[in-house]
Each structure stands twice: as C-alpha cells, then as structure tokens.
Amino acid sequence: MNLVDLKQLEERVREFVAGPGKSFLVKSDPRLTDRVAMNVVASSVFSEEEELERVELLRNYQRALFDAGLAWISGPLELGGGGLPKDADAYVRRELSCHPFPDNTLVRTGSQVLGPSMLAYGSAEIRQEFLPKVHRGDLLVCQLFSEPDAGSDLANIKTRADRAPGGWVISGQKVWSSGAKFADFGVCIARTEPESKRHSGLSAFFLDMHAPGVEVRIIKQMTGGAEFCEVFFTEVFVPDSFLIGAEGSGWAVVLDILMNERSSIGDELLPPRSYIERLAKSLGNGSNEFHRSRVAGLFERYEVGRLLIKRLQSAAEDKGGPGPELALTKLVVTNLGQEMSAVASELFGPRLVADSGDAAAYAWSEFVLGIPGMRIGGGTDEVLKNGVAERILGLPRS
Ligand SMILES: Cc1cc2nc3c(=O)[nH]c(=O)nc-3n(C[C@H](O)[C@H](O)[C@H](O)COP(=O)(O)OP(=O)(O)OC[C@H]3O[C@@H](n4cnc5c(N)ncnc54)[C@H](O)[C@@H]3O)c2cc1C
C-alpha cells in the first residue's frame, strides 16, 4: 500500500469513527460492565430476542462500514470493493479494533475466511450476486466442514451430494458449525463421487440455510453460550451455479479456505493487551512476587507474540500469499490465551467461577472457559504443530 492510500484510509477511518460509526460503539450494559470491557460476547446472558437484536445491530454496523468504503477495501472495484492491496484490509481492521465496535465474528467468517475462496473459485452468480452482500453484512455465511467423524481428519467427509436435474441433492450431517443458527448461507463440502476416498471426489457448494431439508440444532457450551450448531441435510437441493470450483476439486477449495482462516488470525485476534493490564491492576499493593512476575511475563509474551505475528504476516505477503508459517500465528494466539487464562486462575482462584460479587474476577470466567475451544477451532494445536514440523522444519512424518 502506498503512502497516499495509507493517508486516505487513515482519514476515512477517522471520519467513520467520529461520524456514522459513532452510534455503534458498544455502550456499557449494567449486566455486563466488566464483560463488555473484556469484549466478551457473553451470549449466555442474552435472551433469544436480544441475541437477534445484536445480530441485526452487527449487520447494520457492517452496512455502515461498507457504505463508508471500509468493509472490502481489497475487493474488486467492479463488485463494490475498494481495489486496494490486501494489506489495506489488515490496516483498517487493526485501526477499527482500537475502538469498542461490535464483535464481528459472524461477518468475518463470510468475508475473510470463505469470501476470498468464493471470489477465486465461485461462479459468476456467486461472485456478482452474493459476494458483495456478504461483505455488506446483508448475508451471513457459515463454514460447513466438520462432521462427527471428520474433524482433524477432514478428508473423511461422508456428507453426499448426488446429481439431480439442474443441480445436486445433499444429504448428511455437519457439526461445530459456528454461527449456523444465524447464517443465511453456508459453504459445504460434500462427496460427489460416492465410491471416492479421502481427498478425491469432494466438491464445495454454496448452500441456502433456509432451503427445505436444512435443520439447525444448537449445541450448548460450557461457557453458557451456544455459538455452535449441528446441521442436518435431508435431500437439500443446490443449483449447479452454487458449485464452488470444479466438480470433484473440493479439496483445493478446502485448503484455500483453511489458509484464509489461518491468515485471518492475526494480531487483532491476539487477546488484547488491556486484559493483561486488568490483571496487573488487580494485583494491588500487597501482591506477592510470584504473581507479579507471572503478570510481567504475560506482558513480555504479548509483545514477543505481537512482533512474531507481524513478521510471519509480512513474510507471507512477500511470498505472495499465506503459507504453512501462518499456522504459527494461531499457535501464538492460543498459547498467549492459555497463559493468560492460567495466570487469571492463579490470581482469582474460586472467585473466577463463582459469581461472588467480585465482578472483575468473574468477568474472566467466559474467557477462561473459552480458551480450550480456541485451541481446537481452525485446526487443533497438535495438528498445526504436525504441519509446522513437516512443512516448515522438514521433519519426517511419524
Ligand atoms: C471454536 C471452534 C469453532 C469451530 N468452528 C467450526 C466451523 O465454523 N465449521 C466447522 O466445520 N468446524 C468448526 N469447528 C470444528 C473444528 O474444526 C474441529 O473441532 C477440529 O478440526 C477438531 O476436530 P474434532 O473436534 O473432530 O477432534 P479430533 O479431530 O477428533 O481430535 C481429537 C484430539 O486428537 C488430536 N489429534 C487428531 N489428529 C491428530 C494427529 N494427526 N496428530 C496429533 N494429534 C491429533 C487433536 O489435536 C485433538 O486433541 C470449530 C471448533 C471450535 C472449537
């Protein structure tokens, strides 16, 4: 990105924050004060109606961003994007993350994880008709990959797509589909060659989540939230134009999407430094040396992690796209999260899990309970480490 573009973007972000963005800055909710300060989604404390209101607010925030030219900065001009290089997107995301705007995970799955692959592999209809709406928040899209027997071993997918006049009929089950209950569409991987095994014979589809035959069931989590779903397909019709990539080439689309997912886990997903500052503040005057050194260690790890992520991201940009190194960015994020969770647990003890009236301590409970999920989503730590060992360090497969 050149300096002129950078200056213009800086100005555009400033104008957005002071203008149309202002009404979306998250305000304190008396039930949530400490949790909001920790930017926890806290879906567990909202009724279903309130949750839907929050999703509508998020869509409106995304529309305001899009209309201000800040939602799809690297997208093609002819589709409503800004036509700038990819690093412009990252710059704007970082700038916006300095303000308490609504958590946009539901939009990000469509725009940052699935969107780039829909642009690269999707039909003209998907690119022209749907993709701009995904970036504008008009359509929320979920990722329909994992199945009960296909998680780390994703090539074991059993969901089937059989030929039908004008398209395909999909039957099977997905699981752990984040945000599926709010999604308008999904990107689904299914087996189009019934006798095929492993990576061959799979195809990727854009799928209407409101089509007849789609059933979404929520999964209650130990955090109290319910962001995940099981999704069942009973003979769901998908038209030919919703095939993403060539028939039988779904694995290439999967790899592309997984790469996007890893490259979207950057420094803006690093648990905020302000959380560590909160821990430091809670130490008080009489704190012991062990606890002080543990919190100081977090500041060190945060800075090293932040710089390491920047280095990995710029190495990927120099190489012209994400590579296996980006698995390391996710490991940095989850390692820091785990360490913060461990230090918070040492400091607060049982006050962390029981609502004892100490809101500053209890606010950590969702963070601590959510960390194991971070280690699993987007590829488990163990599987990512296998990739680092084989593809970066060149170690033999065991
Ligand atoms: C926060 C979160 C969000 C998610 N969102 C989505 C989503 O939107 N869409 C979607 O499709 N899926 C989603 N998932 C599912 C996620 O991709 C899978 O949970 C993940 O791939 C692991 O699969 P699994 O749960 O079947 O565990 P398994 O694959 O059964 O793994 C069980 C354990 O075995 C270990 N293991 C497995 N294979 C190896 C190996 N070769 N070497 C060493 N250890 C190994 C794993 O590390 C893990 O500890 C999400 C999960 C989480 C937690």
Please tell me about this protein's structure.
There is one protein chain. The chain has 3 domains: 3-103, no CATH class; 142-248, Butyryl-CoA Dehydrogenase, subunit A, domain 2, CATH 2.40.110; 265-392, Butyryl-CoA Dehydrogenase, subunit A, domain 3 (Up-down Bundle). The chain contains 13 helices and 8 strands. It is globular. With 398 residues, it is α+β, with helices and mostly antiparallel strands. Residues 35-42 have low confidence and may be disordered. The site of flavin-adenine dinucleotide (FAD) has 17 residues, from strand 1, helix 12 and helix 13.
Q: Going across the major beta sheet, what is the strand order?
A: 1-4-5-8
| CATH topology term of the largest domain | Butyryl-CoA Dehydrogenase, subunit A, domain 3
Structure summary, number of beta strands: 8
Determine the N-to-C terminus distance.
Answer: 42 Å
Derived from helix and strand composition plus strand pairing, the structural class reads: alpha+beta
* Hetero ligands: flavin-adenine dinucleotide
CATH class of the largest domain: Mainly Alpha
Number of helices: 13
Overall form: globular
Question: Based on the structure given, which CATH architecture of the largest domain is correct?
Answer: Up-down Bundle
Summarize the amount of helix as a percent range: 40-55%
- String of helices and strands: HHHHHHEEEEEEEEHHHHHHH
CATH superfamily of the largest domain: Butyryl-CoA Dehydrogenase, subunit A, domain 3
Largest sheet: 4 strands, mixed
Strand content: 5-15%
Q: Can you give the mean pLDDT?
A: 88
